[in-house]
Amino acid sequence: MANLNPFSKVLQKQAGRAKERLLQNFGKADRTTDEDFDLHVKNFNKQQAAVGRLQKEFKNYYQCLKAMQVARRSLMDTVSELYEPCWDGVEEFLHKSDIFNRTFEDFCDNFNIQILSPVSTYMGQFPEITHKISKRNRKLLDYDNCRHNMQNLETMKKKEDTKLAKAKEQLEDARNNFDTLNKELHDELPTLYDSRVEFFATHLQCLFVTESDYHTKDALLCTEIGELLGKLKKGYEEGSFRENTSQLETSADSGVEYFNTKAFPSPISCESRSQANDTKSFKVADSISNGEVKADGDSDVLKAMYAIPFEKIQEDIVSSESASGSTTFSTPTTTIERNASLDIEVVDVKVGSHKEEIVLPREKETGDNKSISEKGGNHVPTVDNAAGDVSPMSLKATAANVLYQVQGTYKYAAEDADELSFDVGDIIDVVEYDDPEEQEEGWLMGIFDGRKGLFPANFTSRI
Prior knowledge:
Blueprint: H1 4-25, H2 35-82, H3 90-123, H4 125-155, H5 161-237, H6 245-263, H7 267-289, H8 299-324, H9 335-341, E1 344-351, E2 354-361, H10 370-373, H11 392-400, E3 402-408, E4 427-431, E5 443-448, E6 451-456, E7 460-462
Antiparallel strand pairs: 1-2, 3-4, 3-7, 4-5, 5-6
Coiled coil: 150-188
InterPro entries: AH/BAR_dom_sf (IPR027267), Amphiphysin (IPR003005), BAR_dom (IPR004148), SH3-like_dom_sf (IPR036028), SH3_domain (IPR001452)
Region (Disordered): 365-384
């Protein structure tokens, strides 16, 4: 039972405090008040909130400084790597870069030691004072409870001296405990509240002095680095870092020699290549007519089919233009008519699993080559060196002016004199506008059936 006495006393105190608090809240019992102490507690709470807010901002500022420290070091490391060893003042630049980083690190350490740590220490005294205030309020409840018990015993008709003496003794103990804590807090709270001025002035002064010292050193260091880079720029302007021009000229000469010998072969080689291609063109026609063109083993034949026709046509154009001295622009209406005017023919050749269109010059129907064209019932043209019946005007118009071709997907009837009319399937040559500023959105300029005019782009599809 003796071990239960401390627990019983604590339980009895808590029950008495709860009862007293309820009576005071319902107005059944009076409450001991102290207006001066209430003012001190109000100032204490305000001061605690202000210091907590300032500590939070200091911590945030310190975290930003640490992030800035990492960013500055990364920047200076990159700049130091880019500063080439052959440049003037490289050793001095690297030395100052290291000092630049260490100066900021010292500033961060000084901020932590001289500002953040003292603020944390100052903030640490508030929880202790808060605990004392709470304890003082509990002792006040005990005092009020003992006081009310004493008043109840004194108002009883039948007074018991034993209970009255015990209640009086408890009242004295409660008063002494309360007075002790109350007096301490009356001394500590005003002192703590008055210290806010010194705290604010000291730590803020330390902050700005530390900032000033750092920025003074940093400004001087940045000035020195700027002067060093100014010398580097001046050396460049004076030509200290220009490349050796003799080496560039030597490399340029060798490049021109290679370009002349490799990129552009001599006329003899071009002539011999043209003769070889003429021989291959006859083999092409025979191979196509006999159905012997395949995807794997006849690569030379396919190359000849693509290379020869246009080389010979271009030669005929040059000779025809030089002889006549003038060129008349004309545009064939369709692809088939254009091929006929150019004296060429498009032949479908099966290569592997797909078909390819091969452009070859059309042979003249003479007695010597009729047998070749009629082999197998299919007309397969071959290249004839004597055949030069090509319309240079049509080819020049196509190569120089026609951008691409479109095919009519819908029938369109011209509404104005400057428009084209066409049916579904008609081929139209698209050319540039005479005046680009007159170009209208959604309209194209084309040539069809010997006329040049506008037509809507959405009525056609590009081939």
